[in-house]
User: What shape does this take?
Amino acid sequence: MRLFKRSRQLHGWLAALMLAILALAMTGCGNGNDNAAAAESPQQGDLTLVIGAYSVVKDAMGEILPLFAADWKARTGQTLAFQQSYEASGTQARAIAGGFEADVTLLAMEGDVDKLVKAGLVDQAWKDRGEHGMVTRSVVALGTREGNPKGIHDFADLAKPGVKVLYPNPKTSGGAQWDINAIYGAGLKLSEEQKGAKDPAAAKAFLESVHANVESLDKSGRASMAAFEYGVGDVIVTYENELLARIAQGVKYEVIIPGNTILIENPAAVVDKYADEHGTDEAANALVDYLTTPEAQGVFAKYGFRPVDKQVYAENESRYPVPAGLFDINYLGGWDEVRTALYSKRGVWYQVLAGI
Assistant: This one.
């Protein structure tokens, strides 16, 4: 047991080391510091927008922000500058709630925006905009090494003896919560197929069987991917778009879409309190609106996201297989139910961690 724990600690250390080494390769040319407490210094401009986002959108935003700035300049004559911070979604939400004065936020999940609503920073009507406040979609997918040497075809294969699994920690990573939701939901789907009704106990047992093979819980999805690319683990549970983006950069992955998996929806919102204080509310609202335009959605599609714009989605539909058992957060009862049933102090996830 000591050797097992030491192995996990070593893998965690290696993940952190390789995240630093691979940072430039993983983030491409996008600007920004991966520390919500110390965002990069702004460029000079007539107006500066502060962006606090989750790490996965960094590369896409590196292209979208200059496009928006050009559009804003043409419409208003103002030169925009951007101060950017990219972090794990839960970490970023806590930073903003704790005083990081972002004007606009893009986060991994609705629940992280809800934390900012409860903190009095984001208007309760944030979901009235566009596609119910969502700017990108994806699905939880599995990435294996070239040739899929372990023969991984579905979530159930992650529980096989000798299969080493990577996913991040849902306490810090919104992406990890999507991963856990997908695995738990797949367990519910299987129980429903076998018994004719959802069986939460069977779903918990399914999640336990997968988690038993997890090598380490990294801070973010990017950290898990860096560790995987260094050589840790046999399969990574992550966003489909992350795998597609890395493949586009020449990294060898096999992408498996499980038969039962969850539809991911990622929100953006104006942090109204800070935008009002900074006098940036008009530009901040315009940026969030711009994220659902065909131009911005085309960039998101380039980086592997499933667009929320119907036209852009139709143009890229062949890239996005739709599994027969695709479900959304409502299948699990919605975010309020998920937060209570899975992630509360006595929830399923913490029972799995504690082995009870």
About this structure: Confidence is low (pLDDT under 50) at residues 1-11, 13-38. Residues 157 and 259 are 12 Å apart (CA to CA).
